[in-house]
């Protein structure tokens, strides 16, 4: 992607997350979803308890919590580009010596931290980083030999017949959901495969209620992913319409997990 376009997308991402911290935190307090997602991301990893981990796009710190649990003697560096999201994490970890927080851009990781990481993780963030190729290069150079780079990548909502539920609902309601993403999963997969060894990608379906999914997509930044050209009140109205068409408790919220070793 050309750098001017990447800068434009990045600025839009920052603006969207600057409006999101309170709604994001309220969502996470009610549903614990990002904690569960990060727990799933690190589940197969056999890292030492004293691992040094970089959480790229740590946001309000929801993804830091499971890292502190998994690595009881570890050090976690959380980096985020949105001052308002990072402020939530700063308030949360003000007394936690094991957490270091950095305001910064994922494309310039080596500017902020020293090398020697056991893991560089992108917890629900890589699909928001238009220059993710630069970021992966940086992550590679920060890792120890044998260190792991891993990311969670959002796919969508699927019904019990494995149909894309948002696409189906949008066909009836005609709200104009934008299904195009700044980062394409196949391209990300190829890029990680080229840079890391023992690469693997797996798919995880989280069974979620309609109300949980509606709350997720009602976070300002998430709603902007569906309707990038609309203002927030109009996006919320569209989300109400779309989610009133979904029913049942058995919807699958599908994410991909990509991981490889240096
Ligand atoms: C969906 S949130 C995930 C937050 C956290 N990891 C969690 O699991 O709750 C994505 C985060 O990535 C951050 N982000 C997006 N682009 C970034 C970039 N280029 N550099 C650093 N952080 C970025 C956003 O500001 C936001 O806080």
Describe this structure in words.
The chain is α/β, with parallel strands linked by helices and 262 residues long. It has one domain: Vaccinia Virus protein VP39 (Rossmann fold). The chain has 11 helices and 7 strands. A 7-stranded mixed sheet has the order 3-2-1-4-5-7-6, sandwiched between helices. Helix 6 (132-142) packs parallel to helix 8 and helix 10 (220-226) packs across helix 11. Bound molecules: S-adenosylmethionine. S-adenosylmethionine is lined by residues 10, 13, 17, 34, 38, 57-59, 62-63, 79-82, 85, 105-106, 123-125, 128-129.
Could you name the key traits of this structure?
binds S-adenosylmethionine; 7 strands; single chain; 262 residues; Rossmann fold; alpha/beta
């Amino acid at each position: 992607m050309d750098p001017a376009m990447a800068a434009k997308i990045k600025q839009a991402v920052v603006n969207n997350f600057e409006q999101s911290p309170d709604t994001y935190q309220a969502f996470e307090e009610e549903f614990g979803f990002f904690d569960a997602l990060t727990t799933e991301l690190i589940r197969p990893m056999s890292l030492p308890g004293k691992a040094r981990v970089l959480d790229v796009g740590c946001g309000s710190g929801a993804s830091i919590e499971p890292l502190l649990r998994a690595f009881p003697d570890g050090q976690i560096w959380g980096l985020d580009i949105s001052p308002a999201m990072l402020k939530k994490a700063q308030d949360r970890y003000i007394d936690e010596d094991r957490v270091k927080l950095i305001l910064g851009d994922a494309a310039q990781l080596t500017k902020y931290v020293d090398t020697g990481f056991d893991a560089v993780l992108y917890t629900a963030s890589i699909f928001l980083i238009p220059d993710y190729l630069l970021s992966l290069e940086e992550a590679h150079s920060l890792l120890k030999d044998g260190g792991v780079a891993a990311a969670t990548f959002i796919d969508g909502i699927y019904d019990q017949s494995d149909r894309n539920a948002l696409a189906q609902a949008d066909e009836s309601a005609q709200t104009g959901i934008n299904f195009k993403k700044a980062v394409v999963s196949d391209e990300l997969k190829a890029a990680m495969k080229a840079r890391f060894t023992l690469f693997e990608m797996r798919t995880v379906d989280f069974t979620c209620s309609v109300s949980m999914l509606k709350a997720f997509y009602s976070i300002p930044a998430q709603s902007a992913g569906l309707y990038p050209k609309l203002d927030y009140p109009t996006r919320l109205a569209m989300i109400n319409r779309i989610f009133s068409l979904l029913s049942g408790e058995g919807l699958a919220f599908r994410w991909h997990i990509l991981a490889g070793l240096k």
